[in-house]
Amino acid sequence: ENGYPFPHPERPGGAVLFTAQGKGPGDSSRRVCCRCGTEYLVSPSGRCVRDQVCYYHWGRVRSSQVAGGRLTQYTCCAAAPGSVGCQVAKQHVRDGRKESLDGFVKTFKKEFSRDAYPGIYALDCEMCYTTHGLELTRVTVVDADMRVVYDTFVKPDNEIVDYNTRFSGVTEADVAQTSITLPKVQAILLSFFSAQTILIGHSLESDLLALKLIHSTVVDTAVLFPHYRGFPYKRSLRNLTADYLGQIIQDSQDGHDSCQDANACLQLVMWKVRERAGIQRGHPSASPAALACP
């Protein structure tokens, strides 16, 4: 139900998602903006047919208890739901990842010696908007000791229409200086990971879709620390890190830092491991592997 990609049973390199998907416009030339909800037209290449500015809220809608009732407003500008967006973009954009389910690779089992271990890694991806939706622009992988083992900017396959810098921290200059493409990233990650490797992340299905990577041994901090209202609501990584680790992340106006986010996920998992170990020392749940979802 969390939207992780699985191998397509009939199409090599294809993926399927076992999750409810919203219906988009039936016309292939029509798209729905994932930021403001406006329907817009695109050419066969994915470019907007008409110049249309996008007014949107970059924050989430949050509800809080106040004197006399509850107050619901956007976190970005404190405006009420339904209000005109506080940000302006040159054009509409779409997510597109759940529609682009080809070009996937799958981790495979490897043989290890008795004293070897498949490894535990945390990863985080950043994305930009292209004519075909969100595509990977940066990936960072850290090991169990919080050392960066792989960090690179990535050149998307399609034309970039919005670098999404507020959230990604990735700029036009960052992408311009790299020649690394997604297939190269996939090859490198397959050399690091095996099917037995434990991958840690926050809303990890988003990263796996961006990487076009199929892997099932995961620990997702969005699942490990569930929202009190249950699925599909999720707590943000920023809030989890503040509440459980006493750290403030994602506080820069320059956007997120994928290395910082990956390390935060790893620290949250270790916090959970220590919590379980404290409840019953020596219990199997005290092992990081016990948190993985195969």
UniProtKB/TrEMBL annotation:
Keyword Transport among record annotations: no
GO CC annotations, alphabetized: nucleus
Exonuclease domain ranges (all copies): 119-278
Keyword terms: Exonuclease, Hydrolase, Nuclease, Nucleus
GO MF assignments: exonuclease activity; nucleic acid binding
Main localization, broad class: nucleus
Subcellular compartments: Nucleus
Highest taxon of source: Eukaryota
SUPFAM superfamilies: Ribonuclease H-like (SSF53098)
Similarity comment: Belongs to the REXO1/REXO3 family.
PANTHER family reported in the protein's UniProt record: EXONUCLEASE GOR-RELATED (PTHR12801:SF22), RNA EXONUCLEASE REXO1 / RECO3 FAMILY MEMBER-RELATED (PTHR12801)
Name listed for the protein in its UniProt record: Putative exonuclease GOR-like protein
